[in-house]
Amino acid sequence: MRDIAPVFVVGMPRSGTTLLAGLLNAHSALAIGPETDYFNLVWKPLERQGGLCHWPEIAEVLAKWFQKPTLRRIKLPEEAFLRYFYQIFREGDLTHRLILSTVLRYYAATQHKPYWGEKTPNHFMYVPAIKRTFPEAFVISIVRDPRDVHLSLTQVPWNRGNAVNHALQWREYQLIATHYQTLYGDRFFQVQFEELIQAPHAVLRAITERLGLAYEPQMLTRYQAADLFDPRQEPWKRRATMPIDPFNRDKWRHALSPEEMYIFLCICGESLNALGYETTSHTRLKPLTALKGIDVRSLAWWLRALWRIRHHRDPWVAHPLTSATDNHCMP
């Protein structure tokens, strides 16, 4: 199979990444499988150890990665893959590019499709690593009104933090996205969730043309049959396989308190305006509203991550953002 430009779908959790991935996966030529979390579970721990230098560590990390519930849905021939990767390692040619592309090409082949993509929301923070590993890749970041993101996050069991946390995280995502666009040009672009649900044909046509694929109107019906997640383990994703609801927006108008609305206006106002979201508010912030339920560790991490990215450093390891190497062993 010829090498192609892969597609990575990223974004803040609860922004519509599963819906977008399902719609793209419904294309007859593009397979976007269950979340791999590769750059968090494989790339990061191995790069922190110096790279793909020692087979025992590589085998341990890969074996653990293969047990990820979403990855097990691909039904990989794990032992055969480990033997293959070991052979490539002995030849001195093992790279992150080869590992991930081998796995996802295998998945695409099981779906009888020639092209592959990947969707893991938190890969947003690994875009520099993705672009070093796959310089030709397209990265699509989906963005949603942060007030609706906040409401959705409050409904999931793994959420941490309050409106201040979510507002700051969303703002940092937008600042980082602007930085990524400067670094990677038209190979990194954003899609607004609200535009996707209100004009899905137009948005999908624009995306597929940008990716070099022919637009297929059937994508808007095929996506409901996608098998990208286990609804028993991730029930909060069920809506992503239901008919698209163009009114699934602006819930914050009736569900947020005036104080929470003001928090988002103060923290996200500039980015809200830039994206065309409403920014009116008629209250003032009460300090206790901002402090109740705040996650201080999350705030500290986001400040550190943003500083590193703005200074052309990777947020995870000591690599410059503009490095295009995928060396198997770092000095």
Sheet with most strands: strand arrangement: 2-3-1-4-5
Biggest sheet architecture: 5 strands, parallel
Please estimate the helix content.
Answer: 40-55%
Cα end-to-end separation: 33 Å
Secondary-structure element order, N to C: EHEHHHHHEHEHHEHHHHHHH
What is the average per-residue confidence, as pLDDT, rounded to a whole number?
86
CATH H-level superfamily:
P-loop containing nucleotide triphosphate hydrolases
> Into how many domains do the coordinates divide?
1
Instruction: Give the overall form.
Output: globular
Number of strands: 5
Per CATH, which architecture?
A: 3-Layer(aba) Sandwich
Provide a descriptive summary of the structure in words.
Helices cover 50% and strands 7% of the residues. It is of the alpha/beta class. The chain has a single domain (7-310), classed as P-loop containing nucleotide triphosphate hydrolases (Rossmann fold, 3-Layer(aba) Sandwich). The model has no long low-confidence stretch (mean pLDDT 86).
Summarize the helices and strands and which ones pair or pack:
Blueprint lengths: L6 E5 L5 H9 L4 E3 L5 H11 L6 H12 L2 H4 L5 H13 L5 H15 L4 E5 L7 H7 L4 E6 L2 H8 L9 H22 L3 E5 H6 L1 H12 L7 H4 L29 H4 L2 H18 L11 H5 L4 H15 L21
Helix pairs in contact: 2-3, 3-5, 8-9, 9-14, 9-16
What descriptive keywords fit this protein?
7% strand, 331 residues, 16 helices, alpha/beta, Rossmann fold
Task: Summarize the entry for a quick read.
This protein has 331 residues and is α/β, with parallel strands linked by helices. The protein has helices at residues 17-25, 38-48, 55-66, 69-72, 78-90, 96-110, 127-133, 146-153, 163-184, 193-198, 200-211, 219-222, 252-255, 258-275, 287-291, 296-310, and strands at 7-11, 30-32, 115-119, 138-143, 188-192.
